[in-house]
Specification:
This protein is mainly β and 661 residues long. The protein contains three helices and 41 strands. It has one domain (2-660): TonB-dependent receptor, beta-barrel domain (Maltoporin, Chain A, Beta Barrel), CATH 2.40.170. A hairpin with a 2-residue loop joins β13 and β14 (186-187).
Length: 661
């Protein structure tokens, strides 16, 4: 599963993971735009992504990537695209598996999966998945201890109705990692293992999350059905950071290598409720075949964010020479941070989103060659934020809501002159309310996304290999980014308009019965085209700047060879792959760059069947050539990008033994 995510999803995402530290969420860059809003079974777990976007693979059935504005079904998604994970459901055939993983940096993970009918008629099914993971890191003083359990039941009261209820609980004890700082125009020339944001005495952070989801399907007949889903998330987090001070500016002293630091503590609480109701149907009118969808969805998201300690003013006792670090912070300094409120009246941040959306879509087929899709979505959004004093939260002013609404149409066409060839084009828009406040306390106009796309799909080798070549032009306006010119890390600024256009080539499939391929190449030109800020004394000074963390050229290739054929139940399999990312800008000011890199990976596994039992042993190597490289800068401004560059892991080995029966 790890390699499916790494080489299936990650190739599609143009080798652009944008957040790699535990506890701060999982982010990807799709078609030039950051997306942290990971969907779960088609529903959003959070109004703005963030830490709730972090997921574990134990309960993961599949990962779907939708490129471009997925406005019809998802509405609030980023215009670059979205990632939707599908969780495991109970099966009517008994299945059990147990897997033990072990690897570099004291990595140990035990994962299980059990499913079986509860009743003789299989009207009631259960599934229980989970994992326990404990690991250190190539980064100094970084560790993770995670438990996840996910029971699920499905009840089928009639042949036409099924109801599924799933619960997932995840708890993590960890240390968050803020990366390494920048000197000049490149990441500091220090070992990639070295950390300024952790210490042997650094207290353990904790994040606790419960997700509850339901799905109800009822089929009126073979053509018409109704579907309803519900998802709620509850999350609590306690994190303490050893941060640069000022966290949002150059924190180095005059000597250029001594980093000013202080201690910052945050408590986060959030709850999200998301539901939808869809009616789907198939019918024919004359020579046309129709697949129709009409639906409604609702999202309610509330979060609280309390801050203690200090992320602006340096503590002289915490200054660190990054070339000759001396660790061992007094535990008393951490205890003081828990009790200190340096920003009275502004150390509690309350946020609430409420969305309603209605949508429709019709997929029309003519002569089994021409496919036309048309639809639209109308959204009503209510967003609001307020700051208060965490020591007197009840005295907080009522949240003042901003109300926005908008219509997002979509049109697409696919023509297949022959079975192996398809020509397509589409125009799509998206609508997203901005939930944030400016330094002056004002709100922002909604985000608007628009995409034009044309391309060609074709099949080779008796349709065993599929290839897609696409050109897209995507714009997004009224984008909020952290305002690094103010001392408040919650202040945002709208930077005007960004444009991303590019070419994507994907080739996947089986070249022979033994050899399969997953490959991708992407050219991305992602820049700021309109701006309303001042940079170096120049109004609109950001215009023409490239978006950070987006390489102009990226590519991936993965080859797998199954010695006994891809359908064999036993025998050896081998894989070799690589990813390429060109140079990327580290911040939107384009003041420093992350060097391009090529990383090679490999794996081998052996499958053996003994009666009804299948045993699979695997050995994976990531970064086979042990190259130093940098994945991204901090996309969420936990610190300024110059203070937070995430290095990639050196050569890492992973072994596993999996038993299935």
């Amino acid at each position: 599963m790890d390699y499916i995510i790494s080489y299936g999803v990650k190739i599609i995402l143009s080798q652009s993971r944008s957040q790699s530290t535990t506890g701060l969420g999982t982010g990807f860059i799709i078609r030039g735009f950051l997306n942290k809003q990971i969907y779960r079974n088609g529903l959003s777990g959070a109004g703005a992504g963030g830490p709730q976007s972090e997921f574990d693979t134990a309960n993961l059935q599949s990962v779907e990537v939708l490129k471009g504005p997925a406005s019809i079904l998802y509405g609030r998604a980023e215009p670059g695209g979205l990632v939707n994970i599908t969780t495991k459901k109970p099966l009517d055939t008994p299945y059990y598996s147990l897997e033990q993983q072990f690897g570099s940096y004291d990595w140990y993970r035990t994962q299980w999966d059990a499913t079986c009918p509860v009743t003789k008629d299989s009207s009631l099914l259960y599934r229980f998945t989970g994992a326990y993971q404990n690991n250190n890191s190539f980064r100094d003083f970084i560790s993770n201890d995670r438990i996840v359990v996910a029971p699920t039941v499905t009840w089928t009261p009639t042949d036409s109705t099924d109801i599924t209820l799933g619960v997932e609980y995840m708890n993590q004890d960890y240390q968050a990692d803020l990366g390494i700082p920048v000197i000049g125009t490149r990441p500091a020339p220090i070992p990639i293992s070295r950390s300024y944001s952790s210490d042997p005495n650094d207290p353990i952070d904790n994040k606790d999350r419960v997700s509850v989801g339901t799905e109800i399907n009822h089929h009126f007949n073979d053509d018409w059905a109704i579907h309803s889903r519900f998802l709620t998330n509850f999350e609590h987090g306690d994190q303490i950071f050893i941060n640069p001070a000022d966290a949002f500016a150059d924190a180095f002293q005059a000597d250029g290598h001594t980093l000013n630091r202080n201690i910052f503590y945050q408590v986060t609480d959030s709850e999200t409720y998301n539901t939808n109701l869809d009616l789907t149907g198939r019918f024919e009118i004359g020579p046309t075949k129709h697949e129709t969808l009409v639906g409604f969805d609702y999202l309610n998201d509330y979060s609280e964010y309390s801050i203690f300690g200090d992320y602006l003013n340096p503590n002289p006792d915490l200054a660190l020479d990054i070339f000759n670090p001396i660790y061992g912070i007094s535990p008393a300094l951490f205890q003081n941070a828990y009790k200190t409120t340096n920003f009275p009246g502004e150390n509690l941040y309350l946020s609430k989103n409420e969305w309603y959306g209605v949508y429709f879509e019709d997929h029309i087929t003519l002569w089994n060659k021409l496919h036309i899709t048309g639809g639209g979505r109308y959204d009503w959004a209510k967003t609001g934020t307020v700051t208060a004093d965490s020591t007197n939260a009840s005295a907080a002013a009522p949240i003042e809501f901003r109300k926005d609404e908008g219509f997002s149409p979509r049109v697409g066409i696919l023509y297949q002159p022959i079975k192996e060839l398809g020509l397509f084009g589409n125009w799509t828009t998206s609508f997203g309310a901005n939930n944030g406040i400016s330094a002056s306390g004002g709100g922002f106009d909604p985000q608007i996304g628009e995409q034009f796309e044309v391309g060609i799909k074709t099949a080779f080798f008796d349709q065993r290999v599929l290839a897609t070549l696409a050109y897209y032009h995507l714009t997004k306006s009224n984008i909020l980014t952290p305002d690094l010119t103010t001392p408040d890390l919650r202040d945002r600024v709208a930077i005007g308009e960004q444009r991303s256009e590019g070419i994507e080539l994907d080739i996947t499939g089986r070249l022979t019965d033994q050899l399969s391929i997953i490959s991708s190449y992407t050219f991305t030109d992602a820049t700021i085209t309109k701006d309303n800020r001042i940079l170096d004394g120049v109004l609109n000074g950001y215009e023409g700047k490239r978006l950070n963390n987006v390489p102009e050229h990226s590519a991936s290739l993965w080859l797998k060879y199954d010695l006994n054929g891809f359908e064999a139940q036993d025998g050896w399999s081998f894989g070799l792959g690589g990813v390429l990312a060109g140079q990327r800008e580290g911040d939107v000011e384009n003041t420093f760059q992350l060097p391009g890199y090529v990383r090679m990976d490999a794996f081998a596994n052996y499958k053996l069947k003994v009666g009804p039992t299948r045993v699979t042993t695997s050995f994976n190597i990531r970064n086979l050539l042990d190259k130093d490289y940098y994945e991204s800068t901090d996309p969420d401004a936990n610190v300024a990008p110059r203070n937070g560059v995430y290095p990639g892991a050196p050569l890492t080995a992973m072994g596993s033994v999996k038993v299935e029966f």
